[in-house]
């Protein structure tokens, strides 16, 4: 019988014992979010960026049914190269563990595991949210409800621009999830600097974000997440006209091919990569590295 206790990598275990800053990192970006071989290269760059900013990276995933907080380099290489890695949200963790599966954790699952491990800050690219047409399909990412009950700060570039951003912000408000713009009062749109929506709150440096986290802990009124929306500089975003054209083509492809559910996001991200001749991948990489750096500085400020 397998022991289902969460395993910590040696570097993360040492950081936990020393009270050192730790940043949680997801693994779906390695297995499902980026094409090979860029996925492995970027995974290593993300961890290096966290270390350079003074924190310890804790990439989270599942190896042969065991949840690991702080995957080793060989384990990351395995998730990056295998064709049999399952995409794991929170609901999938226990069945996948019992099946001895190799799995990559989504934002929802990574957040839940990180919170369980006492890690306060998580860096990702863009959040999941309400899909276009959700009024009829009810297609909504588990990220949203997970974030309504997890005390973790998530540094991201907003929600993926392939989603219904306005509906997602409405759902986050309903669920009581705090959203703070980093150096902005406008909500970023992943590939785009500005998704077109105002924010009520902003903060200008890592210490200010850390103080928000401390206030939430001290109040102990609500266990929801804090979203730190970190936009790309305008000169680093994907060209908005190109973005809109490719998105329209990708959405038409979904309809034509009958793609639904958890296959939607990987399909659209892959289509963006192909249709923009790699430009969207370059933007995606800039997003996650910027977020990893900011998350590490926030964790250090805590």
Main structural class: alpha/beta
Low-confidence stretches: none
Shape: globular
What distance lies between the first and last C-alpha atoms, to the nearest angstrom? 39 Å
Q: Could you spell the SSE succession in H and E letters? A: EHEHHEEHEHEHEHHEHEEHEHHH
* DSSP summary, beta strand count: 11
Mean pLDDT figure: 91
Structure write-up:
- This protein has helices at residues 10-18, 28-33, 38-52, 73-81, 93-98, 107-116, 134-137, 142-147, 165-175, 206-219, 240-257, 264-275, 279-301, and strands spanning 7-8, 22-25, 56-63, 66-69, 86-88, 103-105, 121-123, 153-156, 178-182, 202-203, 226-229.
- By secondary structure, the chain is an alpha/beta fold.
- Strands 1, 2, 3, 4, 5, 6, 7, 8, 9, 10 and 11 form an 11-stranded mixed beta sheet that branches.
- A hairpin with a 2-residue loop joins strand 3 (56-63) and strand 4 (66-69).
- The longest helix is centred in the C-terminal third of the chain and has 23 residues, at 279-301.
